[in-house]
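ok so for the tutorial part 2 we go from a plain amino acid sequence to predicted structure tokens. step 1 is just haveing the sequence, like this:
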Amino acid sequence: MDTVNEWVRHCYGTLKVNHIALPKYSAEVLLAHVIGIPKHLDIYLYPERILTNDQKLSLHALLKRRLMHEPLEYLVGYADFHQIRVQLSQDVLIPRPETEELVEKVIRQLKGKDLKNKTLWDLCTGSGCIAIAIKKALPDLQVIASDICPKALEVAKKNAEMNGVEITFYQADFLNAYQGTWDYLVCNPPYISKNEYETLDASLSYEPKQALLAERNGLAFYENLAVKEAKRGKWLFLELGQTQAEAVKNLFIEKLKLTGQILLDLSGKKRFFFLEFE
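step 2 — the prediction. this is what the tokens look like for a chain of 278 residues:
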């Protein structure tokens, strides 16, 4: 095997026979990454291009890791997310479509408003994808972002710089991260219970457990947020686990005497919670 076409067929066939998800897409992305082509479909513009020996060795190594269910995004070191690209390491979660929907809902909520001197806080920022995408779309908004993990913040800071946005980062746990005033809070928190985690796809074992697991049947973060006076701001927007919507809504009714809105994702699942304090 020497050409791009031959290697695409080989990688696709190997991944498919081993029941790896999205085998064709994975083959295209890995090959594009190895030969330095930014868009994976552009590999078909060079069907007869010959791979170097180093490129073949790199592709073999990546293919082997993919067969072990290591996520594609970690193999190539980046993910595309809501019109931006973010670098990734195993210190941060891989951005997912539901989180893109969260960003889109936040942007729709704020678009057209006077955002000068308004502050949005992205709690549990991870790779910084939420904060960066919102800042890109709403440049007048002041954005702060925090995470308990210093290595995650290193990734987030690099991503902000790479995407040309100014974001203020803090390292600390939960609401202790920032003592100033803020208007809007957005978060994709840890929300997977221990029992649920043990039933999930093997690829999740590569992602940081701390960013996935939560005590009290996955509800610990939401409960802490309700207890620790989240209503310092105007509103909050949260991503939820697939079965948590009613429990989260009831938590905020119980702790803050406020009724929030449960919002659906594109597949009709209850995946978001919006609560206004004013």
